[in-house]
Design a protein that fits this description.
Blueprint (H helix, E strand, L loop, with lengths): L2 H56 L6 H14 L7 H27 L5 E7 L7 H12 L3 E7 L3 H10 L4 E4 L13 E2 L1 H6 L4 E5 L2 E5 L2 H10 L8 E5 L3 H12 L3 E6 L2 H11 L2 E4 L10 E4 L24 E4 L8 H8 L3 E3 L1 H17 L5 H14 L1
Parallel strand pairs: 1-2, 1-3, 4-6, 7-8, 7-10, 8-9, 10-11, 11-12
Antiparallel strand pairs: 3-5, 5-6
This protein binds NADP nicotinamide-adenine-dinucleotide phosphate.
Length: about 375
């Protein structure tokens, strides 16, 4: 070996020795931090246990959902560090809060006894990928509501509805393909659901099932976060069930609707029902509007590069909404964002329609931020 080679080899041995040392030190620090985190968690749980005992003695509700929502909101504001993803923050603290709850619940049970939870379901086919169970179960838990929400796949909607009644479910969500056909098997219909002729929510009051539609009000809440619809020209692309619900809302809010649809008879039919204008989707270049809403599945996963109209039709002072939420940012929203449009994603409508359901079922205001985080976290995980 030459002198240079032996020098190089000695240098590299020293460097690797230094790296080993540094690695060892960093691992030791991580072990110390883990120990501190564990100590802090145990301290937190001990305090939670004491609070549970005090509340148990006083017979007050152990679970305090409002406080949990406040904790999440405060943490989101405080978080400036490496924990950049809201999903990670949410998941870590959801587990910590749930561990606190588990410690408190035995005291709660001994104080008030076990109560069977109120039952809820989403009925449709398919439902296995529905995000509603995640969203509603987190929301129940956040406000301390004793409820359980499950997916129920059903082809025969009549049997599913009679099952809900006989098992005394408190409420249900109805999804594709039963939103229209379910109406025949309900006892009462809310005014808006009757006009839209579609139901996405059922409330069971003493054995009477009433159908509601929260798709329209959810869509309007999502829009009203960004724009006042009154007097605006609003283009809806699509003429299916979602378009009917959104169109009903636009009309109720005083917007002027234009329907664009691939199939002319379907588009003309909905335009007539809503007193709206109609343009065949193939003639989209004729469109001039302030707000554009895509209600078709164009651009949905896996076809993430599809778009419902040419990007040249977008202009920077348009508000653009897509009701698709997989992906969260569709091609339409990506292109609209590039030219400076105000954009609204499908998650907002989904969370708000769920929040409206939650209020109908529980009589309480929904923890909207927790619902949004629960769905975001599930979407980021999928
Ligand atoms: P739908 O009743 O089946 O209607 C689908 C509409 O899209 C029809 O007007 C159809 O046109 C049009 N369409 C479908 N494929 C098309 C294509 N390749 N090119 C052009 N037009 C096409 O469905 P929906 O219940 O209204 O739901 C539509 C979408 O909204 C779904 O992706 C659903 O997941 C989403 N959604 C989201 C929320 C939310 O909370 N964010 C709520 C409800 C629905 P034709 O009339 O020509 O067939």
């Amino acid at each position: 070996m030459s002198t240079k080679q032996s020098k190089d080899s000695a240098q590299s041995t020293t460097k690797s020795g230094q790296n080993d040392l540094r690695l060892g030190e960093q691992r030791k620090r991580i072990d110390q931090i883990d120990q501190q985190v564990l100590d802090l968690l145990n301290q937190r749980l001990e305090i939670a246990r004491e609070i549970g005992e005090i509340k148990g003695r006083r017979s007050t509700d152990v679970l305090d959902g409002r406080r949990e929502t406040e904790i999440f909101q405060k943490l989101l504001e405080l978080n400036q560090g490496r924990l950049l993803s809201r999903k990670a923050l949410f998941e870590i603290f959801a587990r910590i809060i749930s561990a606190s709850r588990e410690i408190q619940i035995p005291h709660a049970r001994s104080a008030s006894g076990f109560e069977a939870p109120a039952l809820f379901a989403v009925i449709g086919n398919p439902v296995s990928h529905s995000l509603s169970p995640i969203m509603h179960n987190h929301a129940f838990s956040a406000i301390g509501f004793n409820g359980v929400y499950i997916p129920l796949e059903a082809d025969d909607v009549q049997s599913a509805i009679s099952g809900l009644k006989s098992l005394n479910f408190t409420g249900a969500s109805i999804t594709i393909p039963h939103k229209e056909s379910v109406i025949d098997f309900l006892d009462d219909l809310d005014d808006a659901a009757g006009r839209i002729m579609a139901v996405n929510t059922i409330v069971n009051s003493d054995g009477r099932l009433t159908g509601y539609n929260t798709d329209w009000s959810g869509a309007m809440r999502a829009l009203s976060d960004k724009v006042d619809i009154k007097g605006k020209d609003v283009a809806i692309i699509g003429a299916g069930g979602a378009a009917r619900a959104v169109g009903f809302g636009i009309k109720a809010e005083g917007g002027r609707t234009i329907i664009l649809n691939r199939s002319i008879p379907n588009g003309e039919q909905l335009a007539r029902e809503l007193d709206a204008g109609f343009i065949p989707l193939s003639e989209v270049e004729k469109l001039d509007c302030d707000v554009l809403i895509n209600t078709t599945p164009i651009g949905m996963t896996p076809n993430v590069d599809d778009m419902c109209l040419p990007k040249t039709m977008l202009h920077h002072n348009m508000v653009v909404m897509d009701i698709i939420y997989t992906p969260l940012k569709t091609k339409l929203l990506r292109e609209a964002e590039k030219i400076g449009c105000l954009c609204i994603d499908g998650l907002s409508m989904f969370v708000y329609q769920g929040a409206e359901q939650f209020a109908l079922w529980t009589g309480q205001e929904a923890p909207v931020e927790i619902m949004r985080l629960a769905v975001l976290s599930a979407l980021e995980n999928s």
